[in-house]
Amino acid sequence: PTLDDEDRAGVNDFNDPFGGNDGKNQAKITVNSPLQVYSPGWRNPYDVIITSKNKLYSIDNAGNLGWGGPALFDSLGNCTNQPNEINSATHLDPLHLIPSAGYYRGHPNPTRANTSVTFNSSNPQAAVDPSLADGHCNYLVPGSGDGAMATFPTSTNGFAEYTASNFSGAMTGDLIATCFNENVYRIQLNDSGTVATANTVLFSGFGSDPLDVICLNDSSPFPGTIWVCTYGSNSIAIFEPNDFTTCTGINSSYSLDDDDDGFSNADETDNGTDPCNNGSRPSDFDGDNLSDLNDPDDDNDGIPDVLDKYALDFDNGTITTLPHRLDFDNSAAGGIEGWGFTGMMINGTSNYRDLYDLNNVSIGGAAYKFTIDSIPAGDALGSQNDQEYGFQMGVNVSTVSTPFTVKCRILGAFSTIVGSPVNDQSFGMHIGEGDQDNYLKYVCHANSGNGGLRILLEDSGIVTFDSIYNIPILDSTSLILSLSIDPTSNMVTPYYSYDLGVTTYSLPSLAIPSDWIQNIMACGFLSTSGPNPGNEFPATWDWIDVRVDPVTVLGDWKTVPDSLAPVARHENAFIQVGDKMILLGGRGIKPVDIYDINTQTWTQGAASPVELHHFQAVELNGLIYCVGAFDGFYPAETKVKDVWIYDVVGDKWMQGPTIPTSRQRGSAAAAVYNNKIYVVGGLTHGHYGTWTNFLDEYDPATNTWTTLSPAPRTRDHFRAVVVNDKMYCIGGMASGHGSLGLDSVRAKIDVYNFTTSTWSTLHDSTNFPLPRSGPSAGLIGNEIILFGGESNNQLKAHCE
Question: Domain 572-787, CATH 2.120.10.80 — does that match?
């Protein structure tokens, strides 16, 4: 059974028992549920194994500072499901032996512990049968308070047992775990499997985060090998047993390379990797077989690291153009640890590696956040120049002639501090030249314990502007800080908004040096606990984004000459190919009409061999693909089973491949990304209400179809538009003969992320303001333009 979601009509909702909706639509655990909880108290385990000795183990992904604290209790001593950041902390990931059913790991789930925790205020419902409530409310600190066998420093996921007999059985029965610190760990156990006798790094230096692991046994085709997939880099690393390796043990030699991995024994010793293990390698950004620790120029751009503002960017920002955004979504974004930042604010003496501690940050994870667990003292102010954690990237703004904005979202300003913020505790963002003498910082500031916003500008080591504004920030869930930059006047206007960013407020504008924005501009995160130690505190950011501001001047309509008027049609497609606009399809068999943008004239092309209507045409390599179309009469239209292709240059139609039978539909939307065609949504049986949320990928190069994750909701008569690495599905309805479906127009905007292969839905504040079916769509820069369409809001078609 599933809870009856008060936000969705009917007891049985689409996609039950999934769909979440902040718990309102969750599945309910009853005595007859097909799945039951075997071991409670797990926060986010990725993997579980039963070993050859019939022992059950798992590793939990523990909490992070600023990503949620322990459960709060009510006046009766019962744990509640209320949000809480107090006492949140970054903890180590624990390994546990689960000896029997009911074993409590230590992370309470108030919904299962206390059946008075309910969802849906209009019809309160508990998610657990009272007889199954586990009663566990106390939080046990991983490692120190939960009896963990071993712990790991950051997100630890893949988990396997090594059963092969290589190395004379020395590793047989060991556990292997992957960690997001680019390490794979070997856990050795006692004979009974109850105690971890050693926990050491087995492999390292992936250049990306190892996610999952399998170990092949003696009877496999590749006995004793360990296979590791790495998240973000889309690669698999295979480690072969080196039983045959003979090591000299001379680990101080810079000329010997005992394990033949390209790094000298001494280089590996300096980094703490194993000189006698080919799979254990130090990090080496530029791949020159000299570790980043010992390489004075890690990106091989000819600039020493101590002077390189972008020490891990060979191009030094020249190819990083607007828009540019870092979401910290665990994808390999390049730069430092793959986070996307390519350097630190330099002071001319410190290596970038010495300006942050990897063990003091929590990046990505399930929350997609950027957290510094303990912000130290140090500041770029004046001649002090001992700023740490000044993460930055270079963006090329040399060709930007209109205003653009740098913005970031920070979470819970000082919310994890016990008491009030003090001294110069602050965190936010900065822009500038990338050094500690030329920057503008815009930060949340302690402001004598009251909280506020500080703007400080330093030019050539001299502070030319410094002001703290009494803005109430301490009770905000989140805060968006923005710097709007006008390259023609060199003026910067700071803005801020609370939480969802519906209302934006401005602060006084100020001028910045023109040379900051003539070529490569540095921007990133900045924080300090003050000039002296003792006031360390945590802070969390959500994202950082740099893009050209939206057009603020309304456009106007013009009627183009019609020397040869196009054939009237509807439910058709209209698409640009080079300097031509192509009008094709529509009910009935119609010729192609071609509008030349340069000559402003229409010409007529070949008629389609079959009727094609209700489709979104896409262009790929000069050809127009028609996928997901209907033919026939309303309301019993039939699916066009084939892909049809129009060659604009040759003015000819070609019959493409047949769409897989189970995925054929009409009124679907389509888009192109990385030379592949994506088809989403649509109807399978005309206008009789047979909607789909299908998503399919077609690769014309290999003529292959791939079924992808379905969209969050069904829709038809809509448009899909790709912006950067995401596909936005906008408008549409759920068609139905009789009501026509116009009473079910879709306001929500669903987004498919090609990088992570996941769907999301934009917040309700970004809903289509005038939802309608059948709109037209276009892309100008990074702005999606929608116009036309129909809805029940008015009798005439929309002209907005």
Answer: yes
The 10 Å Cβ neighbour count of residue 348 is 10
Q: What are phi and psi of 111, to 5 degrees?
A: -65, -35
Mean pLDDT of 408-414: 91
Asked if domains 346-548 and 572-787 share a fold, the reply is no
Does residue 421 have a pLDDT over 80?
yes
CATH of domain 346-548: 2.60.120.200
Residue 456, token pair as written in the block: 């400080």
Strand, coil or helix: what is 643? strand
Give 727's Cβ-side CA count (13 Å radius).
27
Q: Residue 736, Cβ neighbours under 10 Å: how many?
A: 18
Rounded Cα distance, 440 and 437, in Å: 10
Three-point CA angle 768, 771, 773, nearest 5°: 125
Contact between residue 215 and residue 176 where contact means Cβ atoms under 8 Å apart: yes
Structure tokens at 174: 């060991």
Per-residue model confidence as pLDDT tens digits over 478-512: 999 999 999 999 999 999 999 867 689 999 999 99
Domain regions of the chain by residue span: 36-152, 153-241, 346-548, 572-787
Nearest to 180 by CA among 425, 431, 377, 362: 362
Residues 423, 415 contacting (CB under 8 angstroms): no
Q: Kindly state the DSSP code that residue 435 receives in the 8-state scheme.
A: B
Rounded distance, CA 168 to CA 752, Å? 49
Residues β-bridged to residue 695: 680
Quickly count: other Cβ atoms within 10 Å of residue 115's Cβ: 17
- Residue 702 makes CB contacts below 8 A (sequence gap 6+) with none
